[in-house]
Amino acid sequence: MREVTITDRLSSISEQLPYLLPEGLVAITLLAVVLANVILKGKDHRVYGWITLVGLLIAIGYLCFFSLTPPSSTLFFGLIQWDQHSQYVKVIALLGTILTTLWSLSASNEKFRSKGEYYVLVLGLLLGAMFLGASSHLLMVYLALETLSLSGYLATHLKEDKRSAESSMKYLLFGAVSSGVLLYSLSWVYGVTGTLNPLSPTFWSQLNGLPLLAQIVLGLGVTFAIAFKISAAPAHLWAPDVYETAPLPLVAFFSVVPKIAAATLLLRLGLVVSPETAPGLNSYWGTLWPAIIVATLLVGNLAALLQGKAMRLMTYSSIAHSGFLLLAALAAPWASVDAFRIYGLVYLIMNFAAFGLIQQLHQHTGTDRISQWKGWGQQLPYPAILLLVVMIALVGLPPTAGFIAKLITLSAVFDVYSHTESVWMAWAGGIGLFSTVVALFYYLKIPYFLFFKKNEIFATNHSRISYREVLVSVLTLLLLIGFFRSDLMLEALNRLF
Amino acid sequence: MVPTSHVLFLGAALFCLGLAIILTKKNTIVVLMGVELMLNAANLNFIAFARMHESLEGQIMSLFVIVLAAAEAAVGLALVLRVYQYFKTADIDRINSVRE
User: Fold this and answer.
1) Where are the domains of chain A?
2) How far is residue A421's CA from residue A334's CA, in Å, rounded to a whole number?
3) Hey, is the C-beta of B28 within 8 angstroms of any chain A C-beta?
4) pTM
5) Which chain B residue's Cα is nearest to A163?
6) How high is the pLDDT of residue A1?
7) Tens digit of each residue's pLDDT (9 = 90 or more) over B64-88
8) Chain B residue nearest residue A139, CA to CA
9) Cβ contact A143–B64 (<8 Å)
10) How many CB atoms lie within 10 A of CB A471?
């Protein structure tokens, strides 16, 4: 065998660099914002947002229309995987960031919108999510998770007030402990298998040879860190505080993009853990994740029932939805990957629409307590009707794309159940169905107060139509189109990847 | 040469110390020190295993961990400073304003 020299390695790295051009463009945009900040001597200016927007549009345009396909799907000595899943995450993450940027630019009277560091942190989060969805090596997974987390801790404190300092501090402590536990578990995984590449054939068979107790301990350690990012049940405690204190466009980003990236990681690992390579581990995989999903769905939905504030409600709703995302990702290796893709896309659209509308109502009414919104439906018919549509989509009822997403996910779960007859999968699907019924109560509480309760005293606070309103209308329209022409949505997804 | 198992025991002891500090101490800075101990326990393990497997992967990993631990400590201390400005304390139990 020929010795691999440094020159060979360097030339193969430089050959593979063009396939990372979308990430490169994002990184260049980040540096451009930093540079602009230096040139303007750190003064607040709207130009940072526009630079970000232009950079992101170029990146997504390149990704959708000119992207090169590498000869092999494994790049950079197995660190990065280039396949349909990684492309999907990149497009979704870029879309989410573009929406966040547009929304931030239109946010009136908010200090953060013209701060350079805000956009730097948003782009940092985006880079982390893009790499997390594409990583096929545990070193890369760790790096991507930390990029996401470090940007996230700082971004939480962007409002620079007392409460956000507290919640970002707690987020950091929780995150630091979880990454410590993750690393220590990974070090043992490395010790047992001799490799950090979960796609290598020996990796799973070596792990499979471990005694059951060791498997459970290691599995829990690694799972905990992924669950933390996705705010799944045992590690969701940071989410409500952070969501309440971070800038709102960023909360919408937080609640979608990192979750889809981490769920893709789960999907990619799930594709490798098959009954042939790791029979014992497979049953363990098929028990642990459904258990987490059941817990996440229950915690998210039941806690959402008790919330009186719209923002808190959306926090728990996004925890519940991450349960569904995980369910779709878990089912994907056996059924088809379409369920995961459609759920991710629809979730992105409806979550951004919901957060946008809630902020709008909050600005008009001066409160986000749902019971205070009674009767406002007559006063503000347009946003109220949009909110009704979005809430129906979040429950998962026709005539919205939310229905299609839930239907296709639950039918994928049923497929898995009929193939494997796994009791855990049946439980997860059943709880998913049950949670949709529960969701009906808390989501429709908002339109109920808006339209069916009467209120006489109005402190009207009319403002001109901002282009956030246009943005939200387009998103809501997309939800309706997604129901009546779901074939179009699927075709667009399939053509891109 | 020191046998691998000795290093692993040292790593396990460090990890447990770190975890104990995190669970029992109330000062945020001390908790961050506990996290640092956990990360270094993982580093020791990575290096010991890299020597055992005669592969470089573990050493590279621990290099990255060192860099990221520094970044995490920087962000953590910056946030502690901000929290201290608002609350005049670094005691986790007394930093409590988000709850309604």
Assistant:
1) 15-267, 280-497
2) 12
3) yes
4) 0.90
5) B98
6) 47
7) 999 999 999 999 999 999 989 888 8
8) B61
9) yes
10) 17
